[in-house]
Design a protein that fits this description.
This is Lipoprotein. The protein is α+β, with helices and mostly antiparallel strands. It is about 20% helix and about 20% strand. The strands form 9 sheets. Strands 10, 17, 18, 19, 20, 21, 22 and 25 form an 8-stranded antiparallel beta sheet that branches. Strands 1, 2, 3, 6 and 9 form a 5-stranded mixed beta sheet that branches.
Length: about 625
Amino acid sequence: MKPELSLLWKHSGKLGRRLPFALLASSLVVGCGQPAPETSEPSAPAAESSAQAVGPSGNLEAALNSVTDEDDAVPDRPVVESLFAIPQGSASKATAAVFELKLDAKRAQNEAFRGKTLTMLDGTQQLLFRDDGQGGDEVAGDLLFLASGTFDFVALQAEQERIAQAQSQSQTQLTTAVFEGRELVRTVPVAALSTQFPVGQRVPIRPIGLATLVDPARSLIIRAPSVVGDPTRTWDPCTNVGNPNGKWTFNYLMTEMANQPFTGVAPSTFVREWVRQWEAAKTVNGFTTPPRTNIVTKLVNPWPKVGGALDLTKSPFKLVAIVNRLDLAGNNPAYGSGRAGEGRFIFAATEGTGTSCHTVPFLVILEYGVDKNDCMSIKTYAQQWQALSSMALGSATYNAALEALTEQFAKRDLSPRKPNRSSINQVRTNELWLGSPWELREFRLWNSTINPASFAAPGPVLGLLNSHTVAQTPDRATKNTLFPSYVNGNVPAIVALPPTYTVPLAWSSGAFRGGRAVVTSTFASPSSPPFWSQPATTIPNRQARHVFSLNTCDGCHGDEIGTPFTHVSQTGALSPFLSGALTVPDRADGSPTRTFNEVLGRQTFLDQVANQSCLTLSFLSSSAAVH
């Protein structure tokens, strides 16, 4: 953030809100994890195939004692009630305007912002909002912030015309969804404003997304065989059909991630060292992840070799989905620093040969940050995703447009500030193929700006994927000790809209965040409470219990919402959580009953970002809910 920004935005780069026309108050995600922070550019690691653990200054112990885990820093966020632009002249692309931003006085978290200033960006324009009684602000500390600048009322007119056209083509009233945290609480009608904006009229700047204009199968979760089986971009290890070097193959993506010209690490070594981490027990944040040694007989031994090295052109992983995660928007571009969420590839391992070859429950999810930071580039990127909804799914035009999008995050050297200069945030796996129970692991690249304590001991290795703690999920050994203590000690941050907590590496008297997440059964038993539960006498705030449990990997992928562990299976099938509205009685107490609609939220979010003023992004936020 720029040093001249107010105290508020030195501590908060993200803005949350609850608003009648709001579409999202938190991230609506599947698969654990927030985007890793993008920090200073690392120096190139040594080109060694058997690298040694290295601390930032060559001293791992010093690193453990001096480096903080940036994932733990979640800022306080205000909750916005309304935003208005008041034109001071006739409508144009740069009309002089006064802006009114009102924070919700009923939200306790907004007290930290009373009487402060905040800075907002609209394209290249910087707006200074004041609640300090100066510069036109009449009353200091009333949570009504004022700013002066210009606004594009021509674009706002075009947006109202778009809404009116969509309504004329719909037989039902247009609506937008309202979420509190991750819960769908209601839908509200949407109507176009008048396109006449008289001088002095307060014009609402409302974040509205038209979900019906986004096809999830084309723009969000893409599983069509004509796409994931495109012979020019994918390769099928069961049929040996396709292009082994295609842009959506496991070979290409891991080769780009390894980035041998920069790291000196051969792609085959990069992949083999990643697979090797199942072969021996791993200690992550003091917790032991047991080995699953049969990965050697099941995966490594059958994998074709060239000179003893894994032949990545014949990788036994089949693409099952490409996923747009724009909703993981991260820091807000309206406040000077943003991201365009994540782009993801989901692969399933295969076993057998010929007609007996099939995918197995070993999913590998490559989760890339999209290194776009300003509002206009993020908006353009969103428009490219939405444009897919109007193309024939799997056509040559569609697949070429999708490749143009995936190359914006999958290609090497796109993120010079990140390890390996790759945009990868993390690689995750969830599997039951190697052993029981279902297990989810997380792997990350490392550089000296990231706390090595969050990686497996004895320490992370430069240039390679390293075992890492799983986001928002304590180790299960803490259930009766640190878990209730943490929830009770962080209720305001957990129940905030959106939540503002991140599960730390350590809490109170010991290590807290775990090195893996497990689910003991494929489906949660409806008669038993979720794992992350304690009685009301132990955790009195039941909403805090629910939110915390839902935000864990094993809660979201299991018993908190009663779904299978995989939300996209090895066959590409979607869980109930990704299949429309899902109504679930509270799994610990039986009530209240909550409704979730993950895909509706993503549809609405994409349409909003693609089509509205950058100022509406001030209402958007990524929360501690990371699934």
